[in-house]
Amino acid sequence: MLGLRGDRGSTLPIYIWLTGILLFAAFAFFAFAQAASARNGAQSAADAAALAAAQDARDELMEGLEGAIGVDDDWLDWLDGGAFGDKFEGATAAAQQLAAENDSTVQGEAQRVTVGELPGFRVAIKTNFTVGDSIIPGTETKHAKADATAVIAPRCDFDLDADPVDPITLDCDGESVDIDPEDFDLDDLPDASVLFSVHLAE
Predict the structure, then answer these.
(1) Angle at 184 between CA 53 and CA 82, to 5 degrees
(2) How far apart are CA 169 and CA 122, in angstroms?
(3) Whether the Cβ atoms of residue 69 and residue 165 lie closer than 8 Å to each other
């Protein structure tokens, strides 16, 4: 009987040691999960901000197209991105708004970029929230960062030899859009999403 009690006593430290290892592993796993959650939140905020910047620029692009039809002989350039300029003042503000809605802050301004000949915007953000307390020192003050790029892609095809002063039919991914520059009305244009798509760059 004395021998059995001795065996039980010797196994107690092993149990304590194993329990400590398991607890440490659990806390470490929780810390990594916290960090992963923060990174995912940051990436979602960056994606939303970049899309907002590109969508705002698309709206300005539409305004330029509307003002050019029937006035500018190069109005067709707006449809393929050829007239896409560098100044889109609302893009950064739109990105900042979406970032704020995701508890994040845009770092600097939305940057104009070109991805595969498509115009777009790159946005970098930092979360306002931190990773949180964990067994890893410093996580309570660590903010997650991420960036994303969204592009504006023309959706309409037309005859490249078309005369810009004559009526023209656009094929926008299967949807026909008729425009007569000599008798143009803003209602002749569909929603911006029909003429241009906005999506995250891969």
Answers:
(1) 40
(2) 33
(3) no
